[in-house]
């Protein structure tokens, strides 16, 4: 085969492959549009679950409609079904560590309880850890629910609501967490939401919150994404079509791995959440609510306080600065926590 004919054959195959790929892509996008991009007037009228004041008549349960792949079914009349903690009742800590965690992930909860989640008095300030979860699903759900009940009888630190606990329902979990905090914790100064695979350096957290420059109201910080693009590739995990979000960027928001907020914000966010149809990307949704409130998140004083993808292992100097960092394993988290208990390391 000559060079010219070979080149032409290559181009023909490439053109044919491109044509097939385009057809498949167009078909996929058409099916997404046909199945999910429905007339927005068919979305049921939102019901604000969190009540700012008592009402004479309880809101009616909205008619169910599948929200599709980009939104979640919130607000709805979800209820707290497990909650016997003394936190925010007989105990009012300075800061609450709120950990969203899967129902079956008891190992992660126990690891946190025996490391940073077990720290209760730091620099003279009371700290308490609570785990937020939904309902188990699938085969063995009843047995798993009974195990959760027994676990809570021992630790009294589980807050459970009656939504299905899945990755796509993280926004629901976050909003139910805010509802619980707003309803119960008006004497608490701050809350830190932190994922269960993170290392939290509680001492550095308290130092940050005690800093005179740290705001006491309208305060939200973490690893802030200021220009996070709305992804338009239908094959991307976080794809969002134009019909859901027309802007090219999300409003600024702290990354969901771990963020801090003052305790006036849960009530304020809930107050505007019914105006914004919730997407399944929970941290971006909080950014949308903050924008509606006219509140901007705040960068931490040091960019090394929140690390999303650090080079492991962390040096003693890096560990001495960090508030929260992702980890790659339970063993690594345990090692970092043990090292964080040593006297402060001075960076050279």
Labels describing this entry:
lipid metabolism; transmembrane; alpha/beta; three-stranded mixed beta sheet; disordered N terminus; glycoprotein; 11 strands; eight-stranded mixed beta sheet
Question: If you had to describe this structure to a student in words, what would you say it looks like?
Answer:
The chain is an alpha/beta fold and 348 residues long. It has a domain at 80-300: Spore Coat Polysaccharide Biosynthesis Protein SpsA, Chain A (Alpha-Beta Complex), CATH 3.90.550. Helix content is 34%, strand content 17%. The chain contains 9 helices and 11 strands. Strands 1, 2, 3, 4, 5, 6, 8 and 9 form an 8-stranded mixed beta sheet that branches. Helix 8 (316-321) links the parallel strand 10 and strand 11 (324-326). Helix 4 (170-184) packs across helix 6 (265-273) and helix 6 (265-273) packs across helix 7. The longest helix has 34 residues, at 3-36. It is globular and about 55 Å long. Mean pLDDT is 86; it is low at 1-24 and 28-56.
Task: Produce the secondary structure layout.
Layout: H1 3-36, E1 80-82, E2 95-100, H2 106-113, E3 121-122, E4 125-135, H3 141-155, E5 158-164, H4 170-184, E6 190-194, E7 198-200, H5 202-210, E8 220-225, E9 253-262, H6 265-273, H7 282-293, E10 306-307, H8 316-321, E11 324-326, H9 330-340
Parallel strand pairs: 2-4, 2-6, 4-5, 10-11
Antiparallel strand pairs: 1-5, 3-4, 6-9, 7-11, 8-9
Helix pairs in contact: 4-6, 6-7
Distance between the termini: 66 Å
Q: Sheet bearing the most strands, described?
A: 8 strands, mixed
Backbone shape: globular
Residue-averaged pLDDT, rounded?
Answer: 86
Strand portion: 15-25%
Uncertain regions spanning at least 5 consecutive residues: 1-24, 28-56
CATH topology of the domain at 80-300: Spore Coat Polysaccharide Biosynthesis Protein SpsA, Chain A
Q: For this structure, what is the CATH class of the domain at 80-300?
A: Alpha Beta
Helix share, percent: 25-40%
Task: Determine the oligomeric state from the structure.
Answer: single chain
Counting DSSP H or I runs of 4 or more residues, the number of helices is 9
Structural class: alpha/beta
């Amino acid at each position: 085969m000559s060079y010219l004919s070979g080149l032409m054959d290559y181009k023909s195959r490439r053109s044919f492959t491109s044509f097939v790929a385009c057809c498949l892509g167009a078909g996929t996008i058409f099916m997404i549009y046909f199945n999910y991009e429905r007339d927005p007037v068919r979305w049921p009228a939102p019901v604000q679950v969190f009540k700012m004041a008592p009402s004479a008549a309880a809101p009616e349960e909205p008619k169910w409609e599948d929200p599709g792949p980009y939104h979640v079914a919130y607000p709805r009349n979800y209820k707290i079904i497990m909650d016997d903690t003394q936190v925010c009742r007989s105990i009012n800590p300075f800061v609450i560590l709120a950990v969203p965690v899967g129902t079956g992930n008891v190992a992660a909860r126990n690891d946190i309880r025996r490391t940073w989640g077990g720290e209760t008095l730091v620099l003279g300030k009371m700290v308490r850890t609570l785990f937020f979860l939904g309902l188990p699903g699938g085969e063995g759900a009843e047995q798993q629910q009974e195990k959760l009940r027994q676990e809570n009888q021992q630790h009294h630190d589980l807050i459970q609501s009656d939504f299905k606990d899945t990755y796509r329902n993280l926004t629901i979990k976050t909003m139910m967490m805010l509802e619980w905090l707003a309803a119960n914790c008006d004497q608490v100064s701050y809350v830190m939401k932190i994922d269960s695979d993170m290392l939290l350096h509680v001492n550095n957290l308290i130092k940050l919150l005690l800093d005179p420059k740290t705001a006491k109201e309208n305060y939200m910080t973490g690893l802030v994404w200021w220009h996070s693009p709305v992804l338009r590739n239908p094959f991307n995990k976080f794809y969002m079509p134009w019909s859901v979000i027309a802007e090219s960027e999300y409003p600024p928001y702290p990354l969901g791995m771990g963020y801090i907020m003052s305790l006036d914000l849960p009530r304020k966010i809930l107050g505007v959440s019914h105006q914004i149809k919730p997407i399944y990307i929970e941290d971006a949704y909080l950014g949308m609510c903050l924008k509606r409130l006219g509140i901007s998140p705040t960068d931490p004083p040091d960019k090394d306080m929140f690390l999303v993808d650090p080079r492991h292992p962390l040096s003693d100097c890096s560990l001495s600065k960090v508030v929260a960092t992702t980890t790659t394993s339970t063993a690594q988290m345990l090692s970092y926590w043990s090292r964080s208990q040593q006297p402060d390391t001075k960076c050279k």
